[in-house]
Structures are given as C-alpha cells and as structure tokens.
Amino acid sequence: MSFLTTENSPISFTKPGALEETRFEKIHNIIFNNSEMASKAVAREISDLIRLKQKEKKNCILGLATGSSPIKVYEELILLHKNEGLSFKNVITFNLDEYYPIEIDDKQSYYHFMEENLFKHIDIKHENIFIPRGDTSQNGVNEYCNKYEDLINKSGGVDFQLLGIGRTGHIGFNEPGSHLNSQTRIITLDHITRLDASSSFQNLEQVPRNAITMGIDTILKAKRIVLLAWGRNKAEVIKKAVESKISSQIPATYLQLHHNTTFVLDKTASSELVRIREPWIIGNCKWNEILKKEAIIWLCKKLQKPILKLTDKDYNVNGISSLLNYKCSAYNLNIEMFNQLQNTITGWPGGKPNSSDLRRPERALPVRKKVVILSFQYDRAIFSMGGTIDRLIEQGHDVHVIYLESDNSSVTNDECLKYVEVFRDILPKNSEGVMDAAITELNNFKQLEADSALIQRIKRLIREKESLGATSYLGISRKNVHFLNMSLCDDLKSKEVDLLKEILKKIEPQQIFAAGDFKDPHGFEKKCIDFFKIAFKELQTEMLVKDCWVWLYNASLREWNTSEIDMAVPLSPDQVIKKRNAIFNYLSQREEILFQGEDTRKFWIRSEIKNRKTAKKYHKLGLTEYEALEVFKRLKEEQSI
Ligand code: GLP
After folding, report:
1. Residue 7 pLDDT > 60, yes or no?
2. Is 175 assigned a catalytic role?
3. 447 and 425, same structural domain?
4. Is residue 149 part of a domain?
5. Residue located nearest, by CA, to atom 1 of ligand 1
6. 65: CA distance to ligand 1 center in Å?
7. 574 occurs within a structural domain
8. Ligand 1 proximity of 344 Cβ (cutoff 6 Å)
9. Are residues 324 and 202 in the same domain?
C-alpha cells in the first residue's frame, strides 16, 4: 500500500486498516492540515496505483466522484499527467452517479463536470469513460442501471473508489434508507441534497428530483475506498459515519464494513470527532487553556451542574482528574474558570469609560471609539450583532458599517416586480419604456438565465435601501454606511482590497467587528475575513491603523463554542425587540431565501433563538441569567493578521 508520502505528512497517521486507539472510531481516518495537502496525497496514491497496473500490463479501474471535494485531487492528477508524464491510457473510469433526468451537455450534468475538471486535460481513451447517462429513457432506465452494474463487474471491479459525502450521509447518491445490498439504480433525492445542489442549479425547483447511482453493494465491492471531506459543514456527518452504529439512515456508516477504507479529512471536517473535540475522553490529554475550559464546560453539561458546584469527585470519576493538578482542588479550579467566563460578560462592548479595564473584554480608552462593522450579504451584521450595535451607538461611539457584497441574487423576481411596477407608475412618461422592459423580463424569466444588468441593479438597490433602513433605525447616520459592491463569489482583486483600505484609512478605527467563522473553508465568512485580513495587514504594516482590536461574530446558524468566547454582550428584552424591528427592514428576505439550507424558519426567529440559547448556556454554567447574549471572539495578533 503506497498511501501517503512524507512530503505530505498528515497530522496523524496510522496504516489503513488499523484504527486509532479509540473505542469510538470505526473507520480509519487521516486528518490533514488542509485539503490541498490531503488532495495531493490522494492523487499520489491514485497515480502510484495507475503506474503499478501499467507495470503489470493491466487496466486500472477507477470509481470517480463529483462535487467540490474531489476537484483538487483531479487538479493534482492533471498536474502529474502534465509534469510527470502520468498516462491514463490503461485507466477505465466508472462514475458514481448522475442526476436524472438531465441532458449530457447540460452544464449541471456530471458528464460536463468530469469533462471540464478531468477528462479533457488527460490522455484517457474516450471509450474507457463510463458515466451513468441522465438522458436514458424512463422505460429503459432500470435495464440501463443493470447493464452499468454488469459493466463494472465485467471490467474486473473497481480497484480504487473515490467518494465524497453529502450532508445526509449519502455516498454516491445513496440517500438515507438505502439498503446494504443495493446496486446501481434510480433513486429519489433527499430534500437536503437538493437544497445543497440548488446553488449550482440557481434554485431548488431546477434541481432534478432523481438520480442514477451506484448502490452501496457496488461501492463496497471496490478493493480500496477513499472518502474525502473538507470543511465545517461536513464535521457532523463525518462524526456520525465514523462513530455511530451502522444504519441505513446514514449510508456512509456502511463503509464500516469495508476492510480497506480511509476517510481523508481536513482539520475542520474532523472537528467533531471525539478524539479531536473531547480528547480527554480518549486518554491522556495535553492540557492547554482552551482544552481546560472545554473540558470543564463539557463536565458541567454532562452532569447538568453549574461550574461552582463541581466537586473533586466529579473530576475524578469522569476521567479528568489530571486537571486538578493545576489548582490542587476543584474549588480553586472552579473559581478560576467561573471568573474567566464572568469576565467575558459586558454591557459595554466599546469599553467602559472611567473604570478599570483589567478584567473587561475591551479597553476603556479612548472613551469614544471609532468602530467599523463589516457585513457581508447585507444583513449579516444586523442579524448577528444588532443588539451590540444598539449599545455602541447608545454609548456614544462613532459607528460605521461597511457592506462588502453586492448581494442581489437573494431578491426574488416577484419582490423585484413590485418595485418596478411602482417605478413605472410614478416615473415620467419617457422612462416608461425602460421599466416596461424590466417588467417583461421579470414576467418571462427563464431559469438558468442571468438577470440583465438593469434587473441586477434594481435588486441591488432594493437590498441597499433595506440595509440603510436597518442601520438608520439603529441610529447610524447615512454618511457612516459604505457599500463596496464586490462579489465574494469571484476571486478578490487588489482593487477591492485598496477600496477597503481607503475607507479604513479614512475612519482610523479603534475597534472592528467582522464575520469570521473561518472553520468553514467554502463559506462566505472565510472569504470575508481573509479579504479583510489582507487589507488590515497592509494598513498595519504601513502604520495607518494603530491600536485597533478586531472582534469576530459568527454569522452562521451555529454560535462560537462557549470556550472560544472573549466577549458576551447581554440584550435586555427591549433590545431583543429592537433588534427584531431592525431585522424587519430586510423585507425582501422574509420569505424562503435561496441557499439558506434546510432550516426554513425565518431569519429573525433563527437569530433570536441563537442569542437566547447562548444566554441559556451561560446561565446553566451558573452565570447570571440574561434574556439573550450576542457573543464575540477576539482576533488576536498571533492568529495570523
Ligand atoms: C453530490 C454527489 C456526491 C458527493 C456529494 C458531496 O451529492 N452525488 O457523490 O459526494 O455531492 O458534494 P461536495 O463534495 O460538493 O460536498
């Protein structure tokens, strides 16, 4: 087995087949620092196999996957072909799945995906490529699936099967409910899978309801299986696949039955595994401040006890007595931890004037701070920190909001039509033609066609005006609101960085709030914080921003872990309502929003529940009971600004 070369050393490595020393893990897995390193290692294993088969004068049968996860592996294989002369002439490929129905030249088809991301760049023989055909007639589809299965078997079976994993736990398109003995067949897609696919199909309605997929049995017959998973989004399902019992509800758990499977993960996809998240349960753990905090919070949760009620015995019988060596007794350790959490709570997010700031999250001086709030998708800052913004304004700080993104795609055509009809009715006669054209376009909209420049502009303006409504409701003056109108989907250019630098230079902030859940490598938050970091670092090097602290809010549905929180701002019941009213300005977002995931609750409800939940978590640890809490993490120098 040639798995992994030293140049791509993973964080932890054991040979395939040998499980980590944990009673929790049932599938061999390897964690890499990032998906680039991991993809290189996987591509290397594939190329070694192809070469080995060449020497043996045999074909190499690869089972291939689509989706974002394998893309870097394919890029790496293309590089190996171009730079190291790796030939694919002895390679036969079978793709896992295809949407049904779909035309093969459709941009969303896996035919198109494979051609663009791999096949057209390498020397594979066209006749050696097999992908289930989504254009097979309905009458013939069952027979077609049987033939596909036969073809795989006749080729000698798959030598190496590459897999991704869906959030439902599907492999290929084997959705929850798939049987262990299932073979290539047609399947109905799960709602979550269709939602996840809706970003490439523009909207949910466009996503096919069915797919053809290799079955679980087909996959398990492969001699070697490697499943790739990157990003925070996959962490929960990876935990289930690796640690829970085999169940048709999480089809990836069937891989526990295979003797030569490896899950290749990046750090964030592995973050929910017991070994990573609660290492003290597995065995001796090297304590640091964060782990200490996490273990104590875990103990409180497990025993349903507040911190100050934990006893020596509680630490002992739950396997974390080594923590007591720090402070000798539970009493001292409890008090230390309680105080640390207590000190994160402040009603003065901009610092409390005329009082000691030794134990407060923010500095007291300057009394009146210049504060910048960075928001993406227009509404995220208000959803995530509307109550804190309210306090900052009330406490006299000079608050600016910078909206990074021109997020027009989330306004529906129906919403846009209402505005356009109003313009048409009030505009002077000679402008009517333009609005009539817009109305015709909206009424005759064809899916998958991009909006015209005019419609994009109108949608952007709707979002802009809503944002202005929200910020002015909270008391931020119009001149303090800045729109950058960039697209976080594109690669960020130096022109945009300069634009942000220019605004920050003018404001000279002492405090910046930004969305920053960089655990999700595909997310907008990561893009947003990376972009900001470039601008901020340049400003710091040029000494144009001094003594400025950066605070991160989590704009996603999940909140920071309690152990990560550096500042917690309580919201009174009145402030919760005020925040709700500010959010109501985002009228165009009130109905179901594109890309919002499987959670169909309205945004304002989700934001309130999140803040109330955080308050409850604090209260359960024995801290004061608040109506709601908005919480922040400080981006410290050492976190690579
Ligand atoms: C689709 C594919 C799967 C793939 C999954 C995950 O559902 N049919 O084979 O594993 O997407 O996609 P991604 O890698 O983009 O997360």
Report:
1. no
2. yes
3. yes
4. yes
5. 67
6. 7
7. yes
8. no
9. no
What token pair was written down for 174?
């084997």
Same domain, 315 and 407: no
Quote the domain boundaries for residue 329. Answer: 286-342
> Looking at 20, 98, 149, 175, which residue is catalytic?
175
| pLDDT at position 114 | 97
| Residues β-bridged to residue 633 | 552
Do 614 and 539 share a structural domain?
yes
Q: Tell me, in angstroms, the distance from the centre of ligand 1 to residue 201's CA.
A: 14
Shared domain for 92 and 159, answered yes or no, is yes
Rounded to an integer, what distance in angstroms lies between the CA atom of residue 329 and that of residue 81?
Answer: 61
Give the DSSP letter string of 438-458: HHHHHHT--TTPPPPHHHHHH
**Quick check: CB of 65 below 6 Å from ligand 1?**
yes
Say yes or no: CB of residue 200 within 6 Å of ligand 1. Answer: no
Helices (H), 19-155: 35-55, 71-84, 110-117, 141-154
Identity of the residue numbered 317: V
Q: What are phi and psi of 355, to 5 degrees?
A: -145, 155
Ligand 1 within 6 A of CB of 172: yes
Query: Is the Cβ atom of 134 under 6 angstroms away from ligand 1?
Result: no
pLDDT confidence bin for 497, thresholds 50/70/90: confident
Residue 358 covered by a domain:
no
Judge if 167 and 252 occupy the same domain.
yes
Considering the chain, what is the average pLDDT of its residues?
A: 88
- Closest ligand 1 atom, CA of 165? 10
Does the pLDDT value for residue 54 go beyond 70?
A: yes
Give the nearest ligand 1 atom to 68 CA.
Answer: 15
Number of domains in the chain: 3
User: Counting atoms of ligand 1 from 1, which one is nearest the CA of 163?
Assistant: 10
Residues 551 and 594 in one domain: yes
In a domain, 534, yes or no: yes
Q: Report the CATH number at residue 375.
A: 3.40.50.10320
Ligand 1 pocket residue status of 520, Cβ below 6 Å: no
Q: How many angstroms is it from 633 CA to the middle of ligand 1?
A: 32
Buried b / exposed e along 458-489 (16+ C-beta atoms within 10 A) = bbbebbbebbbebbebbebeeebbbbbebebe
The residue to mutate among 163, 178, 196, 214, having the most atoms of ligand 1 within 8 angstroms of its beta carbon, is 196
- Using DSSP, state whether 298 is helix, strand or coil: helix
Residues 446 and 547 grouped into a single domain: yes
